[in-house]
Specification:
It contains twelve helices and three strands. It is mainly alpha-helical and 267 residues long. The chain folds into three domains: 74 residues; 88 residues, Intergrase catalytic core (hpI Integrase, Chain A), CATH 1.10.443; 66 residues, no CATH class. The protein has a three-stranded antiparallel β-sheet with strand order 1-2-3, with no helix packed on it. The chain is flat, with a radius of gyration of 30 Å.
Length: 267
């Protein structure tokens, strides 16, 4: 009963646009606990019993409030669900962690330490040095920095798309920060396989070698391309063309086919 109620509740939250991941995980634990005791509806005493099993007072309060919100939603349709009081475990004022305000020397030391990371000569030291510098210079959330894509770097600044409150914003950057980003992006283009072999290139190799072994007949090639597209799992045959690359063998075959077509036209 409670499992079904939770499934419906989670579906509603998702339809409303909420991720509902952490809450769902927590509530599944509560529902499993309550159903092991034979409960078919939320019971305040059971909520308190489950909440008190948490390893800390703060986590006990988090459990209580999560179960309480669940009970409130269920009680709107079925008054037999009991809603525990929010202050059952006390009001528990939120303790704000005092932030550390970095001085310039500390930020410099942090970036220098990042630049010294191993393995030397890899992209890793520069990546962390750039990340810490960007966070210090732009004040963005770490989640926003990690979600940045190449297209988000513009002449006007950084486009922040993955925001906490679903609102895009543009972050203008100091020229020194822009230069540091350009340096990092140049290193990525030169050092992350974009100019050398990649694992994904094995897929391209498979597609090309497969086509090289196909009969030179135009109809045979057409049938082979359709079969290859299906084998590679592409939704459209045009997607398969992106996996192909000119090779001496293919260029020879294309030239021969073109010559044969030309000779036929002349004849």
């Amino acid at each position: 009963m409670l499992s079904r109620d939770l499934a419906h509740h989670a579906e509603l939250q998702h339809q409303l646009g909420f991720k509902f991941r952490v809450q769902h995980t927590l509530l599944k634990k509560f529902v499993a606990f309550a159903e092991r005791h034979g409960d078919r509806r939320v019971r305040s005493a059971r909520v308190l019993e489950w909440a008190m099993l948490a390893p800390s007072p703060q986590q006990s309060r988090n459990r209580l409030l999560a179960a309480r919100r669940f009970a409130l939603a269920l009680s709107a349709e079925d008054s037999h669900h009991e809603v525990p009081a929010a202050d059952t475990l006390g009001r528990g004022l939120l303790e704000r962690r005092i932030p550390h305000i970095y001085i310039a020397g500390e930020i410099t030391a942090l970036m220098q330490a990042a630049a010294s990371l191993k393995p030397a000569g890899s992209i890793r030291p520069l990546m962390y040095e750039t990340l810490f510098g960007l966070l210090a210079a732009a004040g963005m959330r770490i989640s926003e920095a990690l979600a940045l894509q190449l297209d988000d770097v513009t002449d006007d600044g950084l486009i922040i798309r993955q925001t906490k409150f679903k609102k895009r914003r543009l972050l203008p950057l100091h020229r020194t920060t822009s230069h540091a980003l350009d340096r990092y992006l140049a290193a990525r283009r030169g050092g992350l396989g974009q100019r050398g072999p990649r694992i994904h290139d094995l897929r391209h190799t498979f597609a090309v070698r497969s086509l090289e072994q196909c009969l030179h007949d135009r109809d045979a090639v057409a049938r082979h391309i359709v079969a290859l597209s299906t084998y590679l799992g592409h939704a459209h045959v045009t997607d398969t063309y992106w996996n192909l690359q000119a090779t001496p063998i293919l260029m020879t075959q294309i030239a021969a086919a073109g010559e044969a077509l030309h000779q036929g036209a002349i004849a």
